[in-house]
Amino acid sequence: MHVHGSPDVVPRKLSDLEIAKDAVQAKMYAVVLKSHLGSTVARAELVNEAINHQIKVLGGIALNSFIGDWNTLALKTALHMGAKIVWMPTFTAKNHLDFERREGKAVNALSALCTGLKGLTIFDEQNKIKKEVYTVLEIMGDNRDIPLCFGHLGLEEVRALVPLAHKKGIQKLIYNHPNNPINPVSLRDQKWLVEQGVLLERTAVDPIQGLADWNIIFKEIKETGIENNIFSTDLGQRKNIRPVEGTALIVEKLVQAGFSSTDLALLLRENPKRMLNI
Known about the structure:
Blueprint: H1 16-25, E1 30-32, H2 41-50, E2 56-58, E3 61-62, H3 72-81, E4 86-87, H4 94-103, H5 110-113, H6 131-141, E5 148-149, H7 155-167, E6 173-176, H8 187-195, E7 198-203, H9 205-208, H10 214-224, E8 229-232, H11 243-256, H12 261-276
Parallel strand pairs: 1-2, 3-4, 4-5, 5-6, 6-7, 7-8
């Protein structure tokens, strides 16, 4: 449900087509292509044609500054074309950029493009939610089968968005990589999120890159409930293993940690299928 391929500004290990061919060979059911640069909907459709629809290749849109900040027309267009998932700002989120500047390091090649950006936040200067964000939520409320992901927004923003999203009729909410230092969430806050109907997306790239601990992730999955979690890879970085290898590693680690085959099916297949309505 979360994989990065080329073409991209960031050097990627595989192209979208190579990712799909790997997934076909591994007999996967579906993959979701993600790009911080905007929409992957058209790319996904072209890949589907190229592999003769042997698996489902799905696309979505990330609402970053690369497509014009809170670009609601781009959002409507992506949904009209068949987007299966929507991400709030990621690399151009104020929370993300604040992290990079506080740590004094760039996450990847996209960071250079973002020099000078203040970053996107849901709040205006009066600390009220911006009109454009309301419009995004209204659009998503009209497309309630499509999950809205919080991207790299900070927890304070997410706390403000969740009740408003419910009010707008949004039924599927996902908090992305809560174990990543960019937007980490304590176990207590994770429990609050799942109480609000938010799904937690764990990503293998975090422990693979030494940013999180497998055992802590497993403990938090058990504490928050298997039904409230999914496990993706977020892979595609040139230096890391291939995405299908990342999925195999997730399975291996989960089995070693004592998770059942039913647990694995929920985390890697059934919960994602439910969220994506496929």
